Amino acid sequence: MVPTSYYIALSGILFALGMIGVLTRRTAIMVFLSVELMLNASNIALVAFARSWGDLTGQTAVFVVMTLAAAEVAIGLAIIVAIFRKRETTNVDDLAAMKG
Amino acid sequence: MMIAFILLGALTLVGGVITIAARNAVHASLGLVGTLISVAGLFATLNASFLAATQVIVYAGAIMVLFLFVIMLLNANAPITGRDPIPFVRELAGLGGVVLAGSFVILAVSYKDPLPLAAATTALGGGSASVIGETLLTRFLLPFEAVSILLLVAIVGAVALVQRPVAQPDNVPDSEAELLAPPVGSAISRGGQQPAFQQQSLQHKNDEGEVRA
ipTM value of the model? Predict the structure, then answer.
């Protein structure tokens, strides 16, 4: 049996990788891919804790997170396509109209 | 078991590095596919068989197809070159990532299992579809229904966002069309105004015909 702490460490490293991607990538689609990486990291941690406590709540939460990710991707990609039609760009640096 | 974890964990991290470092967006999304399938394998080692199957079907199947479709539709696979407007963003992000990962690893090492792992694993029932479904439809019925509404809203929202803006109406009443019509010289160049112009010339012909009659 692999200890739970190994899974948590892996999940933390994967989450940090996703965070680096969100901060450094400049195409909107690549930022989205990095967000998916972070969601998967949290899923690993949830399933590992579910096994650790012998409780199915964590696995149910992962199921909800997956549905949420599907909805988020559908809406987010639709927004990217709509912006691309209007502005001809997916560079997040050009989309700073709402900067305070 | 340990060998499977090391292999799948290494594949997960390699896929993640490809995802954030690849210059071509298609390569990056293929790296993410590798990560997602490895995570499905990790779920299987954690006795979550139903989630492993769902991960492959929903994530590696449906979501990644959507991503690749949009990347190719927008022709967005080329990286953005040119100076980054924020100075030192790569160095700072790398530093922040290392600090975050390090603190997670320290937290993970200090974690103690509340139950013996073997006993907790048997309580999960293998994470099969029947036990997950029973939990979802008894203890978590309200979140389950809320998620169904969320999916409906997402479908409607996606359709509303990507539909083309409604075209200019053709059947504008004549008085309004005359008010909106630009001077005759520019009317020919704009497609939308042509019917009004043709109507005017037809009227002139009619006038001439009446004069002849």
Answer: 0.92
